[in-house]
Write a structure and sequence with these properties.
The protein is an all-alpha fold and 1363 residues long. Helices cover 63% and strands 2% of the residues. A hairpin with a 5-residue loop joins strand 3 and strand 4. It is flat, with a radius of gyration of 45 Å.
Length: 1363
């Protein structure tokens, strides 16, 4: 089965599995997010370039391409070809990424800072993409040439990153411009000036730079380690294999790694140095790539090697060169310990080393790859050996072979060690002595000499260390000497004398004698035979410190408590820490030898009654075999005393094998009592007591079997014990759990009760499981035994053992229940399965609640990691068990809790919170994997598994946002494309979730309606107005929209692939009371319409959806058609879509039996203007809302022509499409309302409605329309009926047009003899009167009035006298 962390690769599966994956990533799961920011767009672009190059590299066959080269050119080698493929990766990683960050920060300073851009690009491009992929290729690629190119890329990245303007820039002088924060040019170059610099910011940048260098070096070292094993690059049959390439890469990595560690030590960051030190040491240990295979198989130690394993004649790596490195490194380490730091290096040596290094080639082609290592180690080692030689000469002159005195007053140090570094060096010397026997004596002498002359002895020694640090280092040196003295090599190597002398001078003579005795005894046992080794392990002494005289003394309370504990231990006899040997001979020898060690009196026991059984050999054997339990047996428990008497043994005839046949028969009285109890007959008091003690005996025996099998060292014994425990647990119904395992039973019961509260749908099944748990405590105890904390420490081995233990015992119980279900209760297996899954879920919940409990965290991780394998091997699963598995995804509260940071939170607490959050998400991801495997492998439960996955994706089952997103991708891009049946199941489940959402909307309709009304009254009171009709009007509606949005998004994503599902969306959205669902559908309809149009074609999908929609679903159908053509799309609607909408209009009639104009409104922007003139009367006959929507659609793509009345380019051919705002105003005035059958009032109201919409029909649009009509009037056309009325309304609404009307329009109308039309003349006079005395200087209609003929002027003055 797929591992838990493989769910993180689902994002890549989305792209690979489906050509329509974009609807899931950008439209379905993030359907309500805004467009990507510039930073995200830049990241996507950089990632696409890197992914393209890496994909090409990963798919490369590993052989030189067969394409012909141009004349005179040299054909590339495979290494050059791979390097050219990876060149874009290097450019983006080292240079393009930082330059993009700088460009974004300078272009959008209000949104981004340079630090934000650099960190985000580095994390996304380098940490999460390039470095992991290259590391994986270097470690696991099967083609040597590609692994070699991956190794070389780390060296190239390190070199490029160190250049100016990149992440490890060390050449730019200005601190504020160093690294990726500047262009890599020194200030003063003519166009670059260094900005002000904050020292705190500089310190932070240096820390980040150090962390990035450490990350690159750590990945480099990790990539080199797997390539140091034999056979990696040594197969001559492979194309262009490079022998020793891993060693070369490791050698190239050493110098930058050691330099980094030196920097960390110099800045007192020993922890940072140690994090890189450990993998570097592993790499150095494995730097001999040609280990003997037989040696590895024999010792099974992959990292162990010997110089003898190196084959002779190797062209680069020689035994002498490696010995030289080892000697210099060891000498340097001894110098650090003995001197307390690095001795000052002679400058001449440094110059010689620099000259040697500069003369060599690069690491991939140089003749000596060890030159960089020797350049570092050799000067340091020689500086120490100079002082060591002088000290040894003084030792020889003095005659004392252990005397070793350094003249520290004349020793100059380049740097001194801190306490942590000192401890690290001492540990390295000690580890080297125990792991490499050839260095044992020299290591022992080094530590002993330093223990004799410890830090702080002289005035100039340890001046950098505090008094407490000096004391700690001295103690460390003595303990290391004592440890080495205990080792048998101290005797064989002869170093015990100097070690013992050092300890004696420190006042530890007694400890030294004991350690030396132990090392000699260990050496003798190694040289001795088997009998000697066995005898050394069998002599024990019983505790005889408690006797009658001691009890008679007056003691303090604490002494009494200690005496009680000691008495309890003695009561257990040999069980107090003594285990029988596995050999029966040794066990008998142990019993016989310890007869002499028995105390003269029996140890005191808890019971007041003394036992009548004599202390003989049988008594002692029983005590040993029962591990001391026989010493505490109660007389009232007959099964402890003489329970074996219930069975009788009879010998039969002797068989062919010479052995008699044995027959076991139960005692008749015991059998009769048992039969009466089983049949429910009346029993005597003695028989009743027998029944109770039988159950108690069964419980205790079961507890012993269960605990013994869990603690057994032999896997076969443990498996057999668990098999017996499983059979007994299902057989002993009604037997209560013993006190040792009762906690597990209580945990199971609590787990089921908690699951009942969470899973209302499976309440009936879980209630039966709870009843079964109460009736069968042993079963529930067994299922949760390994999930119960026992207060033990944990490590990686215990985690794996816990997982295996959980798997073995739980599967035994489930298999036994499955077998029993054939003949007995059919539901027994299902109940056991529900109990087990509930216990696992409860263990995970308890871990989430208390992340600091390491024991619970260990149990939860082990249980969750083994659960997919257990359920995969189970005989069958149930829907209720899958629902329980789905509850593992309920981690929303955990994520919120651990994602919230408080000012008082420490770094450790924050790290623990992140770890707990990651562990919870990993367990939830495991639940998704289980659902996936069930859907793929179990046809009978495929529907239930898909139901759970879809319920998580739709938000009905609780989960965090990240898990819901993973579930959505799992459903859409993993399960749905698998096969037709999986796709049908997904669609069915999505329809169920949509039905649940519809019921929820209907049930909460009245509540939401009242909340919206209250919110509307409150907004009206404060003068607020809603900006969008689709926005939630109240908090209740917002919560409801969030609840129904997820299933709507899921179903819409499926509808893109199966358009027939759109019918279900419209049906549910148009049900009575489902208003909030309809609003959610309308909100997300644009993405659905665009995705469906892209996949199937806009015209085709429009007709298909229209054929499915009923008359009641017309509003959502119109919404769908309306979103097929959006304003964001700059192109006009296609003619196919226009034809499709016109067909839909003809097929769907309104209440009057005429084509419904609403169905062509989405495409009116693409219809020819001459055709729109024919449709305009129908829009006018509609409501004001329909008219305004139609007018908006006509002009939505003619924004720059809004104030222009366009003329046809070719009068003989009508090509203009849409209708500008100016044209709309003109044509509305020119409507012949009598001919089209509308009242005059409606005709005038339509123009008034347009004038009131001053956002569309502003003063400039109205001016353009009136100007065009007046111009036509001068050409001989008559004025429209509403023309002067419109001018009057414009005067009232737009003061900005007063001047134009007075000085241009009114005189123009006079010129055209407006007085010839009585109605227009009346309007002209009223308009002139309104503007005659406006009060604005220079704005008056007097000029136009004066231009009137005398007769009309008198008529005007007669009606409106001049004041």
């Amino acid at each position: 089965m797929m591992q838990i962390d493989e769910i993180d690769n689902i994002n890549q599966q989305i792209i690979d599995d489906d050509d329509n994956a974009a609807i899931i990533d950008s439209d379905a799961s993030d359907i309500d997010e805004e467009e990507a920011s510039p930073l995200l767009s830049a990241l996507d672009d950089l990632e696409s370039r890197v992914v393209t190059a890496l994909n090409e590299f990963k798919s490369h066959p590993g052989t030189v391409g067969s394409t012909a080269t141009s004349a005179g050119s040299v054909k590339q080698s495979i290494h050059q070809e791979l390097a050219s493929i990876l060149r874009p990766v290097v450019e983006v990683s080292a240079h393009t990424g930082p330059s993009t960050a700088r460009a974004l920060a300078s272009s959008y300073p209000q949104n981004y800072t340079i630090e934000m851009c650099v960190d985000e690009i580095y994390t996304r491009i380098n940490s999460e993409l390039i470095l992991p992929v290259i590391l994986e290729s270097a470690q696991s690629d099967t083609i040597p040439a590609k692994r070699s190119a991956s190794l070389a890329l780390f060296h190239t990245l390190h070199s490029e990153w160190c250049k100016a303007g990149s992440y490890l820039d060390g050449s730019t002088s200005a601190p504020s411009l160093a690294g990726p924060y500047g262009p890599g040019i020194s200030p003063g170059s003519g166009h670059v000036s260094a900005p002000p610099f904050n020292p705190a910011e500089g310190q932070r940048r240096n820390q980040i730079k150090s962390a990035r260098r450490a990350e690159l070096l750590r990945r480099w070292v990790q990539s080199a380690i797997p390539n140091l094993t034999p056979g990696t690059f040594t197969n001559a049959t492979l194309d262009a294999s490079a022998a020793g390439r891993g060693v070369l890469s490791a050698s190239a990595a050493l110098k930058p790694c050691l330099r980094y560690m030196a920097e960390r030590i110099g800045s007192a960051d020993d922890a940072g140095a140690l994090r890189l030190f450990l993998p570097v040491m592993r790499m150095i240990e494995g730097e001999l790539p040609f280990q003997a295979a037989s040696r590895m198989k024999k010792d099974n130690v992959a990292n162990d090697f010997s110089l003898e394993d190196l084959p002779p004649g190797h062209p680069i790596i020689t035994r002498e060169s490696l010995e030289e490195i080892g000697d210099y490194a060891f000498s340097t380490l001894r110098g650090l310990v003995l001197l307390g730091g690095q001795a000052a290096i002679d400058p001449n040596l440094l110059l010689a080393a620099a000259a040697s290094s500069s003369s060599g080639s690069n690491f991939m082609g140089g003749s000596n790859p060890f030159t960089p290592i020797l350049d570092i180690l050799k000067p340091a080692a020689l500086a120490f050996l100079n002082f060591e030689t002088d000290a040894e000469k003084a030792e020889a002159a003095g005659g004392d072979k252990n005397a070793f005195t350094l003249d520290r007053a004349n020793i100059e140090l380049d740097f001194g060690l801190s306490q942590k570094s000192y401890s690290l060096s001492i540990n390295a010397i000690q580890m080297l002595a125990t792991k490499r026997p050839v260095y044992f004596k020299e290591s022992s002498v080094c530590l002993a000499r330093r223990a004799i002359d410890p830090p702080g002895t002289s005035d100039n020694d340890g001046v950098l260390l505090s008094k407490a640090a000096i004391t700690g280092i001295r103690t460390h040196l003595r303990s290391s000497c004592l440890t080495l003295l205990r080792h048998f090599l101290s005797v064989t190597s002869g170093s015990w004398e100097v070690l013992a002398d050092a300890l004696k001078q420190a006042g530890m003579e007694t400890q030294a004698d004991r350690a030396l005795k132990a090392s000699k005894q260990q050496l003798n046992l190694m040289k001795g035979g088997r009998a000697a080794r066995n005898r050394a392990a069998v002599f024990y002494e019983w505790d005889t410190s408690a006797d009658d005289s001691r009890a008679a003394k007056r003691q303090r309370d604490t002494d009494d408590a200690q005496a009680r504990v000691r008495a309890a231990k003695m009561a257990r006899g040999l069980g107090s820490g003594i285990q029988l040997p596995t050999s029966m001979v040794d066990a008998c020898e142990l019993v016989l030898l310890n007869l002499d060690n028995l105390p003269p009196k029996r140890p005191p026991v808890a019971s007041s009654k003394q036992r009548k059984q004599p202390i003989d050999l049988d008594f002692v054997v029983d005590a040993v075999v029962s591990n001391g339990a026989s010493l505490t047996m109660e007389e009232n428990h007959w099964y402890d005393r003489d329970g074996g008497d219930g069975w009788a043994i009879e010998e039969g005839e002797v068989g062919e094998d010479g052995r008699p046949v044995l027959t076991f028969k139960m005692n008749s009285s015991v059998l009769d009592a048992g039969m009466k109890i089983a049949q429910g007959e009346k029993v005597k008091d003695t028989e009743k007591a027998f029944a109770e003690q039988s159950k108690l005996a069964s419980s205790m025996a079961f507890s012993r079997v269960l605990m013994s099998s869990s603690n057994a060292r032999s896997s076969a014994v443990a498996d057999f014990g668990k098999q017996i425990a499983a059979r007994l647990a299902l057989t002993l119904e009604g037997v209560k759990a013993a006190s040792e395992i009762e906690r597990s039973h209580v945990m199971t019961v609590e787990a089921v009760e908690s699951s009942i509260k969470k899973n209302a749908e499976t309440e009936e099944e879980l209630a039966g499981a709870l009843e079964f748990a109460l009736e069968n405590p042993l079963v529930s105890s067994s299922l949760a035994y390994d999930l119960t904390p026992k207060g033990l420490s944990s490590d990686e081995n215990e985690v794996s053992n816990a997982a295996a233990s959980t798997s073995a015992l739980a599967m035994r119980i489930l298999n036994e229940a499955y077998v029993c279900s054939f003949n007995e209760d059919k539901a027994k297996y299902e109940k056991c399965l529900d109990l087990f899954v509930s216990s696992v879920v409860n263990a995970c919940d308890l871990s989430n609640q208390n992340p600091k409990d390491n024991e619970r965290k260990r149990i939860a991780n082990a249980a969750a990691s083994s659960l997919p394998h257990q359920l995969g091997a189970a005989p069958f699963l149930t829907p209720s068990s899958l629902n329980l598995v789905s509850s593992l995804c309920d981690i929303e509260e955990v994520v919120k809790k651990f994602s919230t940071k408080t000012p008082s939170q420490t770094i450790a607490e924050a790290a623990a919170a992140r770890t707990a959050k990651a562990a919870a998400e990993k367990r939830a991801t495991a639940a998704l994997l289980i659902l996936r495997d069930v859907a793929f492998q179990r046809d009978a439960l495929r529907g239930s598994a898909v139901d759970c996955a879809v319920a998580i994706a739709s938000g009905r089952l609780p989960a965090s946002a990240q898990i819901e997103d993973k579930a959505l991708k799992l459903v859409m891009n993993v399960i749905f494309p698998k096969n037709v049946d999986c796709a049908d199941k997904v669609i069915t489940s999505a329809a169920k979730e949509l039905e649940f959402a519809t019921r929820f909307a209907i049930e909460n309709h009245e509540k939401i309606k009242k909340a919206n009304e209250a919110s509307a009254r409150k907004k009206e009171k404060h003068g607020y107005s809603s900006k969008s009709a689709l926005a939630p009007q109240s908090d209740e509606e917002k919560q409801a929209l969030d609840r129904v949005r997820k299933p709507v998004v899921l179903v819409m994503a499926l509808a893109v692939r199966r358009p027939e599902i759109i019918k279900a969306i419209m049906e549910n959205g148009c049900r009575d009371g489902a208003d909030v669902l309809a609003k959610a559908i309308r909100t997300n309809m644009p993405k659905l319409a665009r995705a469906a149009a892209t996949k199937h074609g806009a015209a085709k999908i429009a007709v298909q959806v229209a054929d499915m929609a009923s008359k009641k679903e017309a509003p959502l159908l119109i919404c769908f058609l309306d979103n097929l053509v959006t304003a964001a799309d700059k192109s006009l609607p296609s003619q196919e879509l226009i034809d499709a909408c016109q067909e839909i209009q003809k097929a769907r009639l309104d209440a009057d039996g005429k084509p419904d104009i609403r169905y062509i409104m989405p495409v009116v922007s693409g219809i020819k203007r001459v055709e729109l003139l024919k449709e305009l009367p129908d829009f006018v006959k509609g409501s004001d809302e329909i008219l305004k929507t139609a007018l908006h659609r006509m002009s939505e793509r003619l924004g720059r022509y809004s104030m222009i009345f366009r003329d046809e380019p070719d009068p003989t051919e009508n090509t203009l499409r849409g209708m500008s705002s100016c044209e709309q105003m003109v044509y509305l005035h020119q409507l012949d309302f009598h001919a089209i059958g509308i009242p005059q009032k409606r005709y005038l109201d339509v123009i008034r409605v347009c004038l009131e919409d001053d956002e569309v029909f502003n003063d400039r649009v109205v001016q353009a329309a009136l100007d065009y009509i007046s111009g036509k009037f001068l050409e001989g056309e008559s004025l429209p009926l509403a023309y002067m009325r419109t001018i009057i309304l414009t005067c009232s609404k737009h003061e900005s047009l007063h001047s134009w009307i007075c000085h241009v329009l009114l005189p123009r109308l006079v010129e055209g003899q407006v007085h010839s039309d009585k109605r227009q003349w009346e309007g002209w006079m009223r308009c002139a009167k309104m503007l005659e005395n406006t009060g604005d200087q220079g704005i008056s209609s007097l000029e136009a009035i004066e231009k009137l003929p005398e007769e009309q002027k008198k008529m005007y003055r007669a009606k409106y006298p001049k004041k």
